[in-house]
Structure formats: C-alpha cells, structure tokens
Amino acid sequence: MAGLLQGTLGSYLGLLGWAFAFPENGPGSKDYEEDMFFVPLGFIIMLLWIIVMVAAIVLLRKNRKNLLLFLIPWLIGLLGCLVFVFILF
Length: 89
Fold this sequence. Notes:
4 helices
C-alpha cells in the first residue's frame, strides 16, 4: 500500500515540483516574476520526494521481498500518475 501511495502521490508531487522548478515562461514574459517566486518551492518538493524514495529503498534493501513489495506497487502508481497527467489531460 505504501508503494502505491508513494507511486501515485509521490510521483505527482515530483512532477509538480518539476513544473514549479522549471517554468515554461522565459525572461520578459508578464508572468515571469510570479513563476520565479515558486522555483525554490519546486526544488524543495523534488528534494523531499528524493529523500523519501532513498529512505524507503535504504530501509527495505535488506529484505528483497519487502523491497519488491514496495517497488512493484510504486511502479504501478507511477504509471497511473503518468497516464493521469499526460494522457488524460
């Protein structure tokens, strides 16, 4: 269950952090100042996502069964998140 939750919500937050950290507007556009305000937030979100994933893998690496029980639902959740974000929208 934790892998599925991290795969869906964690991946969504990772993508959200990416969108905040690397806005599409360039310098000179009218929303550039506002978008640059959220860049640090995006990097913080991505950093937290990486910390959670590394911590989960480090804690579960001693037991392969538990690691697979985390990674398989995580991959399913990741695919679900990517389908939801990129195909449905």
